[in-house]
Amino acid sequence: MDEVTSRDLPQPPAGKSGWPWTTNMPSVPALASDGVPWPKVTIVTPSYNQGEFIEETIRSVLLQGYPNLEYIIIDGGSTDQTLEIIRKYEPWLAYWVSERDKGQTDAINKGWQRSTGEFLSWLNSDDLLLPGCLELEARYFKKHPEIGLVFGDLERIDAHSVKTQMMICREFNFVDLVKKAGWSSQKGKAWISQQGNLMRREIFERVGPLDTSLHFMMDWDLFFRAGLTYRFGYLRQPVASFRYHDNAKSTAHMDWAAKETITVYRKLFDLPNLPVELRLIEKEAWGNAYLAAANRYLYAQELSLAWQSLWTAIDIYPPVLFDRRRLKVVLSLIIAGATGGRDSRGFNFAQNFGKWL
User: pTM for this structure?
Assistant: First the structure.
């Protein structure tokens, strides 16, 4: 795709300015400093009825200034303004389609199967790439040919694109990622990020496509499968914005995410010939996985399932509660149950209590 600037693209909606509406990244030269063309990067955006946000997403990809970009949008048959917006940007897309599919995971696989890039990623239709993300990651891969996937920090934004929090990751350690199940002892800390990460095409080809039976934890399933073979790299700076809003899938269906947490861990630990270091931390990993499921059931107001998951976590690995961020699940459940439970003011208080810890 040739260089694209904000002057080339459709005019932004009234009142929109800044990134990615009226500012651009400087164009990256066609050749890298070693005289070799930049590798082709494919970004796939799965989409369904996110017309409120998708234009911002599209522009954040097209305005990267990266000289070898392939951008694909796979829409699941949206009935809102999504298709009108996609058609506006059709000249700058390598491919797009709108048809019924089996969900987000299926859409990503379809896009990757059509792709020709040496490096692959997906960007949800309500998230954003930050300026210079693709050049930064391509340079990292050139310096670190042993790395299979690279990720960075995230900005958390609201429905109005206002930054609300920074999510800082850490150097990748596969055993710790499995062991902690996403839990961190500090707020605003994360083990790995999906938004904005980039992987070598061979990961998709060797470990297989995303598991279409998963709709929330397919990224962790991919990290687990890839992490058994490949090294991951961490960029110590923000690469993308993760939008958190009431209609986001990760917000609206936490009970599904809870179930899939256990599914992903079962898939991993059912594998034969796991490295011994994973077998050594298996009980702690299961304890944290069930506690993560309990936390997600709590936010889905499924108190009975939350309690079941909590007791399973304690039964498997009692020390799992020896951390104040984990203890919040227990205290929040007690408060929710004691004050009326589901759909009560007491439940809302329990959720807020968990956020304070």
Answer: 0.91
